[in-house]
Amino acid sequence: MINQTRTLRLPNSLLLVQDSAAAEPPDSFSGRLITASPTCIAIGTLSEADGETTVRLVDSNERALPALEEFVGELDTPSRYILVSTVDGQEIMRQLVEEAKVRVRIYVSHSVEPDDVAVVIG
Fold first, then answer.
1. How many domains is the chain built from?
2. Burial of 30 per CB tally in 10 Å (0-12, 13-18, 19+)
3. Under a CB-based contact definition with an 8 Å cutoff, are residues 18 and 85 in contact?
4. 70-81 in b/e burial notation, b at 16+ Cβ within 10 A?
5. Which of 5, 19, 114, 119 is close enough to 109 for a disulfide, judged by CB 3.0 to 4.6 Å?
């Protein structure tokens, strides 16, 4: 069972969900809240100046999720570890996964500056 939660101010209002060893960040956001490369998902969050963001890493059995599903895709995880971090490399949480490619869904509380982000694995 995956169920990790942290609440913090995120530098540059960005959160990264990535393979822990082979992440290649997306090129740009192009006006979107979430953008992805095969090994890294970048998520915009509540402005650091406006407060804290709750970040949850959960499995697909979790039912208490923010209202908006903003991303559905796959993440290459050749290291078998998902790392959730700040844009400046501070580790927020890490999770072992069974596969080299995992399904990821991201739910947020707001379409522009969410203060609640749930990353659902599986």
1. 1
2. exposed
3. yes
4. bbeeebbbebee
5. 114
